[in-house]
């Protein structure tokens, strides 16, 4: 969060900063907790493993799109 508050190009109000503080820990743990659940649910089921893999690929594709759009906005604001 320090990188946000110390960056002169980023404006964060108190409410947004409070939200970041409240969710930062959860957001760090969530991928690991989700992966543990998937591993347990798909352990012996190849069909479920394939579905989980395809869902992960789709999620990463959306993540890539979001990052690309953020980059475009950042470049346009320079």
TrEMBL record:
InterPro entries: Haem_Oase-like_multi-hlx. This is Uncharacterized protein. It comes from Acinetobacter haemolyticus ATCC 19194.
